[in-house]
Amino acid sequence: MTEMLRADKLTKHFNKGTPSEVLALDHISLQVEAKDFLVIIGSNGSGKSTLLNLIAGNYFPDEGDISIDNINVTSRPDYKRSKWIARVFQDPLTGTAPELSLLDNFRLASLRTKRKAFRIGIDQQFRKTVQEKISVLNLGLENKLDTLVGKLSGGQRQALTLLMATMESPKILLLDEPTAALDPRSSEIVIQLADKLIRGQQLTAILITHNLRQALDYGTRLIMMDKGKILHQFSEQEKKTLSLPEMQQWFV
User: Fold this and answer.
1) What is the 3-state secondary structure (H, E, C) of the chain?
2) What is the CATH number of the domain that holds 19?
């Protein structure tokens, strides 16, 4: 398989040189192949979100390198990595513009990876494309394209965020606890949609979750982080042999 992401000996401190210094990542190395769906679990402070932020370009490592599609992106900020990476955050309010309609939100998402220039606005073909994409949710939102997104529920907004994030088939999809703020029903809808999009578009994806059932049921690989290091790592075949009680014991 083709390697899509490589992280070599990533180290990250916060508040370095002060009494409150924290070693968030401790020489972590990780390889993610194309079409891998990697799930990362770990307690609070284990380094999961820091790792995702380094991959996305929100932070830069103190040491180590990051390559995407065999291109070293270590010093590139997040907006220069957007042509490879799409991201869905924990907060459903983060991924959408509440004062804009569903259609306008999708228009903005469609331009995310394109060069900035004057472009023709929304036409009937684009409206039809968005309707078709939204119809997979079976929520009736394809008939409410002119509704302001701010009037939708958190679960609806998170589902739309997923559709927008994958609209241009990114190389890598980062899912930063996308169901943590949702009720159980909405959580299941969103994680099933994510799995469907990842498999259907053959995306490379990384999911951070505290939900051990999701970690067991979804993804092709699993790693557990603790104190800035990778504590356990399982291949797809090894992951199939795990049980929920066994995983729960890791946190005792």
Assistant:
1) CCEEEEEEEEEEEECCCCCCCEEEEEEEEEEEECCCEEEEEECCCCCHHHHHHHHHCCCCCCEEEEEECCEECCCCCHHHHCCCEEEECCCCCCCCCCCCEHHHHHHHHHCCCCCCCCCCCCCHHHHHHHHHHHHCCCCCHHHCCCCEHHHCCHHHHHHHHHHHHCCCCCCEEEEECCCCCCCHHHHHHHHHHHHHHHHHHCCEEEEECCCHHHHHHCCCEEEEEECCEEEEEECHHHHCCCCHHHHHHCCC
2) 3.40.50.300
